[in-house]
Design brief:
- With 324 residues, the protein is α/β, with parallel strands linked by helices.
- It has 3 domains: 51 residues, no CATH class; 174 residues, Rossmann fold; 76 residues, no CATH class.
- It has 12 helices and 11 strands.
- Bound molecules: zinc ion (ZN).
- The site of zinc ion has 7 residues, from loops.
- Zinc ion binds next to loops.
Length: 324
Protein backbone atom coordinates (compact mmCIF):
# COMPACT_ATOMS: atom_id res chain seq x y z
CA UNK A 1 0.00 0.00 0.00
CA UNK A 2 1.49 3.30 -1.11
CA UNK A 3 2.02 5.67 1.88
CA UNK A 4 0.16 8.54 0.14
CA UNK A 5 -2.99 6.43 -0.11
CA UNK A 6 -3.76 6.79 3.61
CA UNK A 7 -4.44 10.53 3.25
CA UNK A 8 -7.16 9.83 0.66
CA UNK A 9 -8.89 7.09 2.65
CA UNK A 10 -11.75 7.37 5.12
CA UNK A 11 -13.74 4.77 7.02
CA UNK A 12 -16.60 3.55 4.77
CA UNK A 13 -18.79 3.05 7.87
CA UNK A 14 -18.49 6.50 9.50
CA UNK A 15 -16.19 8.56 7.20
CA UNK A 16 -13.70 8.84 10.09
CA UNK A 17 -9.95 8.93 9.82
CA UNK A 18 -8.08 5.64 9.51
CA UNK A 19 -4.87 4.76 11.32
CA UNK A 20 -2.49 2.29 9.74
CA UNK A 21 -0.58 -0.49 11.46
CA UNK A 22 2.19 -2.12 9.45
CA UNK A 23 2.96 -5.77 10.16
CA UNK A 24 5.15 -6.26 7.13
CA UNK A 25 6.58 -3.59 4.85
CA UNK A 26 8.37 -3.71 1.54
CA UNK A 27 10.25 -0.73 0.10
CA UNK A 28 8.39 1.64 2.43
CA UNK A 29 4.95 0.26 1.53
CA UNK A 30 2.63 -1.67 3.84
CA UNK A 31 2.45 -5.21 2.49
CA UNK A 32 0.47 -6.69 5.39
CA UNK A 33 -1.23 -4.68 8.13
CA UNK A 34 -4.43 -3.22 9.45
CA UNK A 35 -6.40 0.02 9.00
CA UNK A 36 -8.36 1.05 12.08
CA UNK A 37 -11.08 3.59 12.68
CA UNK A 38 -12.07 5.14 16.02
CA UNK A 39 -15.58 3.71 15.44
CA UNK A 40 -14.13 0.21 15.85
CA UNK A 41 -14.16 -0.79 12.18
CA UNK A 42 -11.04 -2.60 10.98
CA UNK A 43 -9.86 -3.31 7.47
CA UNK A 44 -6.92 -5.57 6.63
CA UNK A 45 -4.10 -4.79 4.21
CA UNK A 46 -3.05 -7.93 2.33
CA UNK A 47 -0.71 -8.19 -0.63
CA UNK A 48 -0.23 -4.41 -0.45
CA UNK A 49 -3.98 -3.85 -1.03
CA UNK A 50 -6.29 -2.28 1.59
CA UNK A 51 -9.40 -4.48 1.72
CA UNK A 52 -12.78 -2.84 2.27
CA UNK A 53 -14.79 -5.37 0.30
CA UNK A 54 -18.08 -6.48 1.70
CA UNK A 55 -19.65 -8.20 -1.27
CA UNK A 56 -23.19 -7.55 -2.50
CA UNK A 57 -25.93 -9.69 -0.98
CA UNK A 58 -27.93 -10.32 -4.18
CA UNK A 59 -26.70 -13.58 -5.80
CA UNK A 60 -26.81 -12.10 -9.33
CA UNK A 61 -24.67 -9.13 -8.28
CA UNK A 62 -22.28 -11.35 -6.34
CA UNK A 63 -21.87 -13.66 -9.32
CA UNK A 64 -21.19 -10.66 -11.61
CA UNK A 65 -18.40 -9.55 -9.28
CA UNK A 66 -16.91 -13.05 -9.07
CA UNK A 67 -17.00 -13.55 -12.82
CA UNK A 68 -15.20 -10.27 -13.48
CA UNK A 69 -12.66 -11.34 -10.87
CA UNK A 70 -12.07 -14.45 -12.96
CA UNK A 71 -12.02 -12.54 -16.25
CA UNK A 72 -9.37 -10.03 -15.30
CA UNK A 73 -7.11 -12.65 -13.83
CA UNK A 74 -7.56 -14.94 -16.88
CA UNK A 75 -6.97 -12.24 -19.52
CA UNK A 76 -3.93 -10.33 -18.41
CA UNK A 77 -2.21 -9.51 -21.67
CA UNK A 78 -0.86 -6.00 -21.79
CA UNK A 79 -2.28 -5.03 -25.15
CA UNK A 80 -0.71 -2.67 -27.64
CA UNK A 81 -2.92 0.31 -28.44
CA UNK A 82 -4.54 0.55 -25.02
CA UNK A 83 -3.30 4.08 -24.45
CA UNK A 84 -5.11 5.29 -27.59
CA UNK A 85 -8.15 3.21 -26.66
CA UNK A 86 -8.21 4.74 -23.17
CA UNK A 87 -8.06 8.27 -24.57
CA UNK A 88 -10.90 7.42 -26.96
CA UNK A 89 -12.98 6.14 -24.03
CA UNK A 90 -12.15 9.35 -22.14
CA UNK A 91 -13.00 11.83 -24.92
CA UNK A 92 -13.64 14.76 -24.85
CA UNK A 93 -11.26 14.70 -21.88
CA UNK A 94 -7.60 14.33 -22.78
CA UNK A 95 -4.14 14.02 -21.29
CA UNK A 96 -4.28 17.58 -19.95
CA UNK A 97 -7.29 16.66 -17.78
CA UNK A 98 -5.28 13.89 -16.10
CA UNK A 99 -1.97 15.68 -15.66
CA UNK A 100 -1.20 16.54 -12.05
CA UNK A 101 -4.62 15.37 -10.84
CA UNK A 102 -5.81 13.04 -8.09
CA UNK A 103 -7.73 10.43 -10.07
CA UNK A 104 -10.00 7.48 -9.27
CA UNK A 105 -10.47 4.57 -11.69
CA UNK A 106 -13.77 3.24 -10.33
CA UNK A 107 -14.12 -0.45 -11.20
CA UNK A 108 -10.54 -0.86 -12.34
CA UNK A 109 -10.71 -4.60 -13.20
CA UNK A 110 -7.20 -5.75 -14.08
CA UNK A 111 -5.90 -2.18 -13.78
CA UNK A 112 -5.21 -1.41 -17.45
CA UNK A 113 -6.66 2.09 -17.29
CA UNK A 114 -5.17 2.78 -13.85
CA UNK A 115 -1.83 1.97 -15.43
CA UNK A 116 -2.38 4.19 -18.47
CA UNK A 117 -3.73 7.09 -16.38
CA UNK A 118 -0.65 6.88 -14.13
CA UNK A 119 1.62 6.88 -17.19
CA UNK A 120 -0.09 10.03 -18.52
CA UNK A 121 1.08 12.16 -15.62
CA UNK A 122 -1.68 12.04 -13.00
CA UNK A 123 -0.28 12.93 -9.56
CA UNK A 124 -2.01 9.97 -7.89
CA UNK A 125 -4.28 7.34 -9.41
CA UNK A 126 -6.32 4.95 -7.31
CA UNK A 127 -7.84 1.88 -8.93
CA UNK A 128 -10.78 0.48 -6.94
CA UNK A 129 -12.60 -2.77 -7.58
CA UNK A 130 -14.75 -5.14 -5.56
CA UNK A 131 -13.57 -8.30 -7.29
CA UNK A 132 -10.44 -10.40 -6.96
CA UNK A 133 -9.21 -8.64 -10.12
CA UNK A 134 -7.41 -6.30 -7.70
CA UNK A 135 -4.63 -8.93 -7.51
CA UNK A 136 -3.96 -8.59 -11.25
CA UNK A 137 -4.28 -4.79 -11.01
CA UNK A 138 -1.82 -4.58 -8.14
CA UNK A 139 0.69 -6.70 -10.03
CA UNK A 140 0.34 -4.44 -13.07
CA UNK A 141 0.76 -1.07 -11.32
CA UNK A 142 2.80 -1.71 -8.19
CA UNK A 143 5.99 -0.46 -9.86
CA UNK A 144 4.36 2.92 -10.48
CA UNK A 145 4.96 5.35 -7.59
CA UNK A 146 1.76 7.27 -8.43
CA UNK A 147 -0.67 4.32 -8.65
CA UNK A 148 -2.38 2.35 -5.88
CA UNK A 149 -5.11 -0.29 -5.71
CA UNK A 150 -7.99 -0.63 -3.23
CA UNK A 151 -10.51 -3.47 -2.93
CA UNK A 152 -13.88 -1.87 -2.24
CA UNK A 153 -17.53 -1.64 -3.26
CA UNK A 154 -18.27 1.37 -5.50
CA UNK A 155 -21.43 1.96 -3.50
CA UNK A 156 -19.50 2.45 -0.25
CA UNK A 157 -16.08 3.68 -1.22
CA UNK A 158 -13.55 4.35 1.55
CA UNK A 159 -12.62 7.86 0.48
CA UNK A 160 -13.09 11.47 1.47
CA UNK A 161 -13.66 13.91 -1.40
CA UNK A 162 -10.13 14.16 -2.73
CA UNK A 163 -10.61 13.50 -6.43
CA UNK A 164 -10.09 15.91 -9.30
CA UNK A 165 -11.33 13.24 -11.69
CA UNK A 166 -13.32 10.05 -11.23
CA UNK A 167 -13.65 7.89 -14.31
CA UNK A 168 -15.56 4.65 -14.71
CA UNK A 169 -15.31 2.72 -17.96
CA UNK A 170 -17.50 -0.31 -18.62
CA UNK A 171 -18.60 -0.76 -15.01
CA UNK A 172 -21.89 0.99 -14.20
CA UNK A 173 -23.91 -1.12 -16.66
CA UNK A 174 -22.88 -4.24 -14.68
CA UNK A 175 -24.23 -2.90 -11.36
CA UNK A 176 -27.78 -3.78 -10.27
CA UNK A 177 -28.55 -0.04 -10.56
CA UNK A 178 -26.13 1.99 -12.69
CA UNK A 179 -27.50 5.34 -11.57
CA UNK A 180 -27.03 4.45 -7.90
CA UNK A 181 -23.37 3.66 -8.67
CA UNK A 182 -22.92 6.90 -10.60
CA UNK A 183 -24.38 8.98 -7.77
CA UNK A 184 -22.13 7.23 -5.24
CA UNK A 185 -19.01 8.11 -7.27
CA UNK A 186 -19.87 11.79 -7.60
CA UNK A 187 -19.79 12.11 -3.78
CA UNK A 188 -16.02 11.64 -3.77
CA UNK A 189 -15.21 14.53 -6.11
CA UNK A 190 -13.89 17.83 -4.83
CA UNK A 191 -15.86 20.95 -5.79
CA UNK A 192 -15.01 21.62 -9.45
CA UNK A 193 -13.92 17.99 -9.98
CA UNK A 194 -14.97 16.01 -13.04
CA UNK A 195 -16.74 12.70 -13.49
CA UNK A 196 -16.45 10.66 -16.68
CA UNK A 197 -18.48 7.51 -17.40
CA UNK A 198 -18.84 5.07 -20.29
CA UNK A 199 -21.76 2.64 -20.57
CA UNK A 200 -23.34 0.32 -23.13
CA UNK A 201 -25.98 2.08 -25.23
CA UNK A 202 -29.43 0.76 -25.97
CA UNK A 203 -29.28 2.54 -29.32
CA UNK A 204 -27.00 0.74 -31.79
CA UNK A 205 -27.18 -2.57 -29.94
CA UNK A 206 -30.53 -3.82 -31.25
CA UNK A 207 -28.94 -6.94 -32.80
CA UNK A 208 -27.02 -7.75 -29.64
CA UNK A 209 -30.06 -7.21 -27.42
CA UNK A 210 -32.22 -9.40 -29.64
CA UNK A 211 -29.89 -12.35 -30.27
CA UNK A 212 -26.91 -12.34 -27.90
CA UNK A 213 -28.44 -11.01 -24.70
CA UNK A 214 -31.02 -13.80 -24.25
CA UNK A 215 -28.22 -16.38 -24.65
CA UNK A 216 -26.14 -14.53 -22.02
CA UNK A 217 -29.01 -14.37 -19.55
CA UNK A 218 -30.28 -17.92 -19.96
CA UNK A 219 -27.12 -19.86 -20.69
CA UNK A 220 -23.62 -18.42 -20.83
CA UNK A 221 -23.67 -16.35 -17.61
CA UNK A 222 -24.49 -19.61 -15.79
CA UNK A 223 -21.64 -21.64 -17.27
CA UNK A 224 -18.54 -22.09 -15.10
CA UNK A 225 -16.13 -19.32 -16.19
CA UNK A 226 -13.42 -21.81 -17.21
CA UNK A 227 -15.91 -23.53 -19.56
CA UNK A 228 -17.05 -20.19 -20.97
CA UNK A 229 -13.42 -19.28 -21.57
CA UNK A 230 -13.06 -22.28 -23.90
CA UNK A 231 -16.39 -21.53 -25.58
CA UNK A 232 -15.25 -17.92 -26.07
CA UNK A 233 -12.08 -19.22 -27.73
CA UNK A 234 -14.16 -21.27 -30.20
CA UNK A 235 -16.50 -18.35 -30.94
CA UNK A 236 -13.72 -15.79 -31.16
CA UNK A 237 -11.80 -17.69 -33.87
CA UNK A 238 -14.33 -17.14 -36.71
CA UNK A 239 -15.12 -13.66 -35.41
CA UNK A 240 -11.46 -12.70 -35.43
CA UNK A 241 -11.09 -14.01 -38.98
CA UNK A 242 -14.06 -11.90 -40.09
CA UNK A 243 -12.58 -8.86 -38.33
CA UNK A 244 -9.25 -9.33 -40.10
CA UNK A 245 -10.71 -10.06 -43.56
CA UNK A 246 -13.66 -7.65 -43.62
CA UNK A 247 -13.39 -5.01 -40.94
CA UNK A 248 -9.72 -4.09 -41.11
CA UNK A 249 -10.20 -2.46 -44.50
CA UNK A 250 -11.27 1.12 -44.86
CA UNK A 251 -14.64 -0.10 -46.19
CA UNK A 252 -15.18 -2.07 -42.96
CA UNK A 253 -16.70 0.96 -41.26
CA UNK A 254 -19.65 0.80 -43.70
CA UNK A 255 -20.47 -2.85 -42.87
CA UNK A 256 -23.00 -3.80 -40.15
CA UNK A 257 -21.73 -2.69 -36.69
CA UNK A 258 -18.90 -1.10 -38.69
CA UNK A 259 -17.82 1.54 -36.17
CA UNK A 260 -17.50 -0.98 -33.34
CA UNK A 261 -16.13 -3.97 -35.26
CA UNK A 262 -13.51 -1.97 -37.18
CA UNK A 263 -12.30 -0.71 -33.81
CA UNK A 264 -12.19 -4.29 -32.50
CA UNK A 265 -10.28 -5.40 -35.62
CA UNK A 266 -7.25 -3.38 -34.50
CA UNK A 267 -6.47 -5.67 -31.57
CA UNK A 268 -4.77 -9.08 -31.44
CA UNK A 269 -6.67 -12.34 -30.90
CA UNK A 270 -6.53 -12.50 -27.07
CA UNK A 271 -8.49 -9.23 -26.98
CA UNK A 272 -11.19 -10.63 -29.30
CA UNK A 273 -11.51 -13.68 -27.07
CA UNK A 274 -11.77 -11.50 -24.00
CA UNK A 275 -14.45 -9.30 -25.60
CA UNK A 276 -16.51 -12.39 -26.51
CA UNK A 277 -16.11 -13.69 -22.94
CA UNK A 278 -17.01 -10.26 -21.56
CA UNK A 279 -20.26 -10.05 -23.52
CA UNK A 280 -21.41 -13.53 -22.51
CA UNK A 281 -20.24 -13.79 -18.91
CA UNK A 282 -21.86 -11.16 -16.69
CA UNK A 283 -25.26 -12.06 -15.16
CA UNK A 284 -25.99 -8.31 -14.99
CA UNK A 285 -25.61 -6.10 -18.06
CA UNK A 286 -27.80 -3.09 -18.80
CA UNK A 287 -28.04 -1.19 -22.07
CA UNK A 288 -28.96 2.43 -21.42
CA UNK A 289 -30.82 4.84 -23.70
CA UNK A 290 -29.00 8.15 -24.19
CA UNK A 291 -31.66 10.20 -22.42
CA UNK A 292 -31.66 7.99 -19.34
CA UNK A 293 -27.84 8.16 -19.10
CA UNK A 294 -27.85 11.92 -19.49
CA UNK A 295 -30.51 12.09 -16.78
CA UNK A 296 -28.03 10.71 -14.21
CA UNK A 297 -25.82 13.76 -14.74
CA UNK A 298 -28.75 16.17 -14.59
CA UNK A 299 -30.21 14.66 -11.42
CA UNK A 300 -26.77 14.86 -9.75
CA UNK A 301 -26.90 18.63 -10.53
CA UNK A 302 -23.64 18.56 -12.46
CA UNK A 303 -22.46 21.30 -14.82
CA UNK A 304 -20.98 21.34 -18.34
CA UNK A 305 -22.57 17.98 -19.23
CA UNK A 306 -21.30 16.48 -22.49
CA UNK A 307 -22.70 13.14 -23.70
CA UNK A 308 -21.35 11.62 -26.90
CA UNK A 309 -21.62 8.31 -28.76
CA UNK A 310 -18.66 5.96 -28.99
CA UNK A 311 -18.49 3.41 -31.81
CA UNK A 312 -22.19 4.14 -32.45
CA UNK A 313 -23.25 1.68 -29.72
CA UNK A 314 -22.29 3.21 -26.36
CA UNK A 315 -22.37 6.48 -24.40
CA UNK A 316 -19.59 8.58 -22.92
CA UNK A 317 -20.54 11.30 -20.48
CA UNK A 318 -18.48 13.99 -18.78
CA UNK A 319 -19.49 16.70 -16.32
CA UNK A 320 -18.23 18.89 -13.52
CA UNK A 321 -19.26 19.31 -9.91
CA UNK A 322 -20.25 22.96 -9.25
CA UNK A 323 -17.83 25.19 -7.35
CA UNK A 324 -14.07 24.91 -7.01
ZN1 LIG B 1 -15.38 4.37 11.26
Amino acid sequence: MKPWLLALLACPECAGELAARADQTEAGEIETGLLRCACGAEFPVRGGIPRFARGPARPEARSTVERFGYQWRAFRDRLPGYREAFLDWMAPLGEADLRGGVVLDAGCGGGRFTDVAASLGARMVVGADLSESVEAAQELVRHRANAGIVQADLLRLPFRQPFDLVFTIGVLHHLPDGEEGFTALVRHLRPGGRVHAWVYGREGNEWLLRFVDPVRKRLTSRLPPAVLRVAALALAAPLHLALRVLYRRRSGARLPYGAYLSWLARFPFPHTQQVVFDHLSAPIAHYYPRDEFRGWFEKARLEDIVVSARNANSWRGTARVPGG
